[in-house]
Amino acid sequence: MNKVILMGRLTKDPETRYTQNTNALVSSFSLAVNRRFTKQGEERQADFFNVIAWNKTGEFCSKYFKKGQQVGVIGRLQTRTWDDQNGTKHYVTEVVADEVYFADSKRDGDNTNTSFSDTFGATAPGGMGDTPEFEVSASDDLPF
Length: 144
Known about the structure:
mainly beta, 6 strands, CATH 2.40.50.140
């Protein structure tokens, strides 16, 4: 099974381009993911992952993702190789995003970083909204 789940911050705005043969949209960005543990006396370390998103997911990323935002990505690892014009072989491992999500918490008094659901009342493809489907009142009899 090849499945990757990451949550981190974008290091720059996504770059979008179209393939030559099929004119398919592809968006790419780098995600800084903090390591879970830190050694005492050391700064928190992060790993940087290259992510690519195709078609509708890539279009969503290019429109709504910005540098510094915290996002979640679910996808798979992919390794590619190619030879440059000098005959040097290059290798790259990247995450191919199948699902993307906003992961920032809503900041009080900060209107510069609004989420997709705040703006459009919907969620990212495959995402879950932050509004509950039902409301619980104090008079409800709950088993917990």
